[in-house]
């Protein structure tokens, strides 16, 4: 066509772009308009808007933005559809500030936003937990004469649920069905048109999901009956949310009832449905039932994914069946499903708790050779277990490897290091409080753990070396390094290395940290041990004179 100098019209051009985007040839789609323009084709707003839509649907927002800029540069005016598709796509990508700029721009050029435009930004503000902005924006929408519809209210309920504002979401729903009484809602507009707006399956789905995530599963289940009474048929999303909700609160029998109801209605359970049930059954130590559901899953031609296998491996480890978990890992690989970092970490932790740290170390090596990089949680779990098993050199080696190989990319923040791990799993490892208290991934606690263990093992030279490293890596003193100081001082005093012990004590004081009573006990005992009674008495007097404060229930023991 091009060789014969045939100029394509806007339908041809849009179709070519759509097909190219469909096979992920986005650069080609981006260039096609330029090629057509050279051949004499003059694209209009509709052509640009369609190609921008294809790019946005493929989440190629940067290319969509560039095409939008070019559209304006060549004098083609964007319409409400063009602006709305960009605003919606950037909102979904979390780029609310840029979306708001385009909203302001479209109004400044006389292009009136429609209900879809307002709804996209409203939903984005709520998901980002920016409730004041969302409330203000909702009233701007109403003041501009753009009245919210069923889609807007569904988005409002979903956004409020995602922002953790379940009560406000319920208030909007109560207004929609007319049961709110005199209760006011900042996200509802009373008008003549509101009588015609009724909750649909999307509205119910959003509220059921929100209630389940807030562990208000009984309320969510009542909502299922309420929607059926209005003739609104639940879809598989609602059933999935209810099953997952019941599983999360340990009500497995209720979850199974919803599961049977779902299948009777003709909905096929998804991998997510099965995974929720299997995970809950393992956590409830109902192994036989979990395996029965797995068999049912396979019979139904629903292939388990990495999340399913990981839930089963973690569940087996939780009931002390690490050998079966290892076998399941092998089966998982045979079925062509690659384990991820969460899978390996759960199994390494399970092996450690079963006293099989050596197999955990082998698995750690295996995961690295198979292209699955360990992260902070993996290292932390394995270092903990190595220390508990007395494998201090292996623990130190892991710390060195973590620091040199993987550490720099985790300095942005601990959330990058724990991606993929549930909050419950992190808490079960005893790392939640520790990680949330640091702006970046906390390496100091790992050093503190090793220093404590090397000190207790009497390997003072290595403990002091690690202490020096810790001060270089994390100079700010926190509760972890206070514990490391105490362990070192105690070990040095027991070994009669009083000069080094008092050196560390002075370092603590210089940093403005008040040592706990246990530190003074160790120092006094150390002085008595080498018959330095005068110095021991002087230290006792200085404690009383300075009024040193300490924590805990420590007390002087011994003579």
UniProtKB/TrEMBL annotation:
Belongs to the PPR family. P subfamily. PPR repeats lie at residues 44-78, 79-113, 114-148, 149-183, 200-234, 235-269, 270-304, 305-339, 340-374, 375-409, 443-477, 481-515. Keywords: Repeat, Transit peptide. It comes from the Eukaryota. NCBIfam families: PPR. InterPro entries: PPR_rpt, TPR-like_helical_dom_sf. The lineage of its organism: Eukaryota, Viridiplantae, Streptophyta, Embryophyta, Tracheophyta. The keyword Transit peptide applies. This is Pentatricopeptide repeat-containing protein.
